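Possible regression after last week's pipeline update?

I re-ran a chain I had predicted before the update to compare outputs. Posting the input and the new output here so someone can diff against the archived version. Not blocking, just want to make sure nothing changed silently.
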Amino acid sequence: MNIENFLGTTVLVAVTSAAHGAQTWTVTVPDSSTAKLECPDTSKLDTCLLPTGKTNSFADGAAVKINCSDANVCKDVRIFTEAGGKPIRELKGAADASATSRIYTLSTKDITEATNVGAFHQKALLTSFTLQPSADTTIAGGKVAAAGGVSLETVVAGSNPMPFFECPSQLQPIYSKPNDVGEAVANATIYTDVLGNVLAKPSYSFDENDSLTVYVLGDKDLLQRLKVARTSDIRDLTKIRIIGEDVEVPGLGKQHAQGEEITCAMRKFEIDSFAPGKGVVAISRVKGEEVSAISTFDLNVARLYSGMFTLGAFRTDLVDPKYKLVSNGSDQVIAPENSSDTDTRYSIFYTPFIWGRRDLEKPFEWSSWYQHINPTLGFVLDDVSDNFLAGVSIDLPRGVVVTVGKHYGKVTQLSKESGLSTGSVFTGAADTIPTSESWESDNFVAVSFDIGVTVKLIKSAFTTTTGK
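New output (post-update):
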């Protein structure tokens, strides 16, 4: 691993002092805005000063030395404990070695747990790293305090340390927003063992914008080294649903050689940014910088839709009469081709979900019925250019949509200048009847179906009819 590439512009230097027999880490400061830190032996990470996020273990007598190229710069360079890039308290044991160098001798009395520190020029952070007493160091209480920093394994795992919990007697998976139709960001919980066996999961559909909390149950020593992450690619699945129910927690303890029972522990991992389709979560064991796969488990991730196309029939009060010639026994008179007050036609509708994107796998929730009322536009299949529909729809379960609104279309009228009307005698040909067209509107009501459902119904009917 190239440490210089890993750290970007910050390079770490570690030098072992033979004279004192103690480790000395060197931080080189060429100017007031840069700290160069080079690691001479990247194969021995325990002898290199590593950046924040990787713990640097030390024993009493170890030191951090600052080397500056300019004495004016060096007088303002100090090492402080830090939080969020801000200096908190200068390390003890500081001594000026020269006008361009300063040495901080480390003591386990001053640093009793993993502590983030940084080299600052005045109040500007140049670089930071984590110091922690060696595991074999004896301090007050007889042992090193619990690490407050972040371990190498944690950095490789790609997450902050997560707390441990006692295993509950019953696993109760939760979907935080069961009444949401899809737009809201919800959280789902899944319980699994270290082998990827899903012990409990919610019955609600999991959306692409939801986050997942994974509780892994098992031996605490192994859980400490686990990495749980999403590894799935994008896939298109038409039927997506997570199914599960409460189950009893199985015995997850294992026996030590001495026969003592290790109690079941549970660790929490947060995952998000799932692509719709098949979601894959990998459980791996981290040792140093190596990651070894243990298992995976899958979950279906529902796609969120911003609208829907439907196909159906509509009954309209806007009728285009058109005109023809009929005989009244003695003469040819003008008569409408369509004398009905209503007409039935077919249309494709588009309904945008103005309340937010929708997971079509989720059941209809009467508590959020208003979110199923949306505007709708329609195009008449047999005359797209001269007709359109605009209205309000309510979408019901199983892809059924009921729409009411206005039908706008071109309607044929007898020319006013001709003085003709229905029943007037006309001696010319039918195609010479003087007419004009105008845009008119009237009410309509429609029942349409999700196009996907319609195609399935047609295929089913065709299969039944043909027997194929």
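Follow-up from reviewer: compared with the archived run. The longest helix spans residues 451-466. Marking as no regression found.
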